């Protein structure tokens, strides 16, 4: 059987978080709005109107380019990309082609073929600005057009053909969205259309130098869909080649219900779009001093934050990856870790609570960390109470659940529920004496050498105190009494 090699490239579009559209002053907050209420003559493509470049969109695109290690062009040119779809009111889209804003960058992902500490570099061919199209709604025999989305500012990120597996494609998109969110330039919410991606894939005999026939896949609304659609398309192309036939260069859609790619149309080439410079817009000049100013203001990005968490807090690589996956999570941990240190709590202990109990409740309640009622300082206070022996670890989990649901402080919940841990030796000595007196057979077995019974005795004392006894004090008292 012929061995094949897979070549994948990714094109991703992300809607920028600007107040107005790319070339007009219409409000860009269009999600959930009544159809055709955020429109004007410019984004409706009416005759005689003139576009004006959104400076903030350019700034955000430069931020993305810098974060993706791109070279920023001193001059970029907007072009007209001509095609005739019902969702394109002008019959052309203002985009960039020959002279994009950002080129020749890269982003690193964890290499699935290696250990977690190994990375693979995915080249970024270009990052450019363009305007979004309108949105079609199909109802029976009719199609309706909502122009609210028309003219929204988009960045398009195009990779080099460096991706080799569907999992690498999924990882790249996950990392890209993480970077966009850290920069604060896009939500990356695929369900709301704020991020869309069209991977292209070809298959060639292993060892070949030339590329196979490229097929693009559209209509992907999640990273999981990207992975499974690529897996299906790769298998389809292999079956075609195994029969001796040729793969056709087409655009495929993804049918989520049937779990298969579906041919939509013959793939267009760049010549089909008849690109030419947009005559209503001058070349975009990007002063080097402005780029330097933007670069200096960039926030700490995920990879740098991950490395800092390892060195500053002594966290493992795996924990640092998890805690830097989102800016909100990273900020929550850092605030909690700082408050914990003031109370004598090690950062690793704080990390364990965040990735353990907090994440568990976030998943169970389907809540984002930004909406959680527990403050980082309150979490640090709870952990400190456990470390100080005021409350047991098991009781602390119950307290944390109430904090999560109500936002109340741990001290208040512990007082109301009487959960404070018993560490008084006089009180616990009496309980230990009663437990030993009630279980003479187990005492005899322990003294005959069955020392594993110590754990059982601790459990009996904990049961007698309804889990309030300090287990360390209990264990010490039991050992002392059982030696007598």
Notes on the protein architecture:
With 484 residues, this protein is of the alpha+beta class. The protein folds into three domains: 4-294, no CATH class; 301-417, no CATH class; 425-483, Arc Repressor Mutant, subunit A (Orthogonal Bundle), CATH 1.10.10.410. 40% of the residues lie in helices and 20% in strands. The protein contains 15 helices and 16 strands. The chain has helices at 55-67, 166-183, 223-242, 288-296, 302-313, 317-323, 327-342, 347-365, 376-387, 393-406, 410-417, 425-438, 440-447, 453-464, 471-483; strands at residues 4-15, 71-72, 75-76, 78-82, 92-96, 102-110, 119-131, 135-139, 142-146, 153-159, 195-205, 215-218, 250-255, 260-266, 276-277, 284-285. The strands form four sheets. Strands 2-6-7-10-1-11-12-13-14 form a nine-stranded mixed sheet. It has a three-stranded antiparallel sheet with strand order 5-4-15, with no helix packed on it. α2 packs antiparallel against α3 and α12 packs across α15. The longest helix has 20 residues, at 223-242. It is elongated. The model has no long low-confidence stretch (mean pLDDT 92).
Secondary-structure map:
Elements: E1 4-15, H1 55-67, E2 71-72, E3 75-76, E4 78-82, E5 92-96, E6 102-110, E7 119-131, E8 135-139, E9 142-146, E10 153-159, H2 166-183, E11 195-205, E12 215-218, H3 223-242, E13 250-255, E14 260-266, E15 276-277, E16 284-285, H4 288-296, H5 302-313, H6 317-323, H7 327-342, H8 347-365, H9 376-387, H10 393-406, H11 410-417, H12 425-438, H13 440-447, H14 453-464, H15 471-483
Helix pairs in contact: 2-3, 5-6, 7-8, 7-9, 9-10, 12-14, 12-15, 14-15
